[in-house]
Fold:
Amino acid sequence: MASPDVLSAETIQLAEESLRRCASEQFFQAFYKRLLQSDAATRAKFAHTDFDRQNKLLQHGLGLLFTFAKRRNPVLLERIAARHNKQDLDVAPAQYAHFEESLLRTVREFDPEWGPALEDAWHRAIAPGIAFMAAQHGG
Ligand code: HEM
Structure:
């Protein structure tokens, strides 16, 4: 049996297919609504955000997280990680927990196929990229 830490391509594919079922304007709106409710520090960072643009950027960003989980190539996430680090947006590592929680709750709401296997697949598909980004915070 494979070790629980070994990520199979099928696991990432489950998350990719789930995102395809969910990804709509309403989905991203619901996600950001949740994320912004998670704490005041997070809300403050999005005070001037154009969410029509941000939704597309996040969809692309999620795709990069999935690819990173498969290939672990730092180049994939270097630019986004630099944008979120202490010198720029200053997203503290703890804020990534809110990101994952808000995202998974929103997928649960939008994906009719939601269940424990999908929850596990989503976690595995985004955790390596989140860990990378949090580690690049620099503070
Ligand atoms: C792994 C998780 C995350 C991914 C994949 C992600 C992805 C992105 C991407 C692709 C952008 C656009 C960058 C650009 O302008 O070129 C962005 C911007 C941003 N992200 Fe994240 N992000 C993540 C986590 C977070 C968290 C936890 C916060 C919490 C505060 C956050 C706050 C922001 C803000 C404030 C912006 C700028 C929005 C603006 O332009 O007004 N991000 N993010």
